[in-house]
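Hey team,

Sharing the Lipoprotein release system transmembrane protein run so nobody has to redo it. Sequence (396 residues) first:
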Amino acid sequence: MIKYLVSKYLRFDKSQPFITLCAILAFLGVSIGLMVLIIAMAIMNGFDKEFERKLFTMNYPITIMSHFKGSITKDELATLKAQFPDIKFSPYISSQVIVKSANRLEGGMIFGVNIADEKEINSVVKDGIKDANLSGYGVMLGKGLKDEFLLSDGEKVTLIFTKNDPGGFALIPKMKRFELRADFTSGLIAYDKAYIYADINDLARVLGYSDGKFDGIHIYSKEPFSDIKRISEVLPQGMRAIGWWEQNGNFFSALKLEKRALFIVLMLIILVASLNIISSLLMTVMNRRQEIALLLSLGTSKKEIKKIFFTLGMVIGGGGIVFGLVLGLFGVWLLGSFDIVNLPADVYGSSKLPMELSLTDLVMIVVGALFIVLLSSYYPAKKATQIDVLQTLRNE
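Structure output:
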C-alpha cells in the first residue's frame, strides 16, 4: 500500500499542478546545490593540495636550524647521516641580499648549497639547474627575478650582503659579482622573485665562514610528521628541527577556515532547496487530507501514514541527492580533465584548474545533505498524522 500511495502522490496532478512543480523544484534544488558543493570543495581542496605540494618542495619537509649562524659542523651532519640512512640531508648557508643589475635593485634570499645534495631533495632546483655548474661564483635565480632584471644566462649580477666590511672610517656592505648560469620556476611567484642559489663553498668564502660550517640543514623525508620527532630526539642543544607545516601554519589555518566557511554557506543552498520539499509535502497533505482521514478510519495506523509521507519526501530529496552526486562527480571529472577554465600561471602556479575531491569531503557533503532531507521530510509526515478524522470527513 505504501509503495502504491507514494507512486500515486508522485504522479502529475492536473487539478493541482503547483504541487508537482514544487516537488520538481525541490528535486532540482537539492541536485544543483549538491553539485555546486561537490565542485566547489574539489576546487578548494585542489588549490590546498597544489599550494601544499609547492610549499613542501620550496620550504623542505624538515629544516634543522641553529640558534647561531654558522654553528652547525660537518661532523654533526655526518652523524645525522649515519643515524638516519633513510633520510636525505642537504646543508646550506643563507643570507639576505640586495640584487643589483644596472640601476635596479631587488631584495632576495641567497642559499649556498651543495648542488649534488640539493638536487636529491628539491625537484625545483633539479629541474632548473640541469647540467649547469655554480662553482666559481655562479648563481641560479628564480624566473621572476631573472625576468625582472631582463637578464640572460652568462650576464653578471651584483649581490649586496648584510655583512659589512671596514672601509676607512665607516663600514660598507660586502658586495660580490656573480654570473647567472641557470634559473628555476617553482610555480609560486613569491619564491621565484626572491630565492637565489649559489655554491656553498663560494658563499662561505664571501661571508667568511670557516670550512665545514653551515647555517642549517634541509631534509627530505617521506614521513616528515614522524621523522621530525626522531630527529629532534638526537639533536644537540642549540639546534632544532622545524617542519614545513610549522613555517606556514597561519597560511594553512586560513585556507582551512575558508574551506569550512564555504562548506557551511553552500550547504545552506541545500537547506533552502529542502524548504521546497516541506512546502510540497504540506500541500500534498492538505490536498489529500480526505484520503488520509479515510485511511485512518479504515484502520490504517498513524505510523503507516507518517511512513507514506516520509518516504515521499525521501524519494524527492534522496533522488535529488543521487542526481546531484552524479552531476557533481561528472563536473569534477570534466573540469579536471579538460582545460575549460584557464588560470594565470604566474599567480596560481598552474594554468589548469586543480580538482581534487577527498573522500572525507564527499562523505560529509552526502551525510549533511541526507540529514537536511530527513529533517525536511519528517515534519510534513508528522503533520499528516494530526488530521482530525471526524472533522475532515464531516466537512468533506
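The CA atoms of residues 39 and 332 lie 6 Å apart.

Ping me if you want the raw files.
A.
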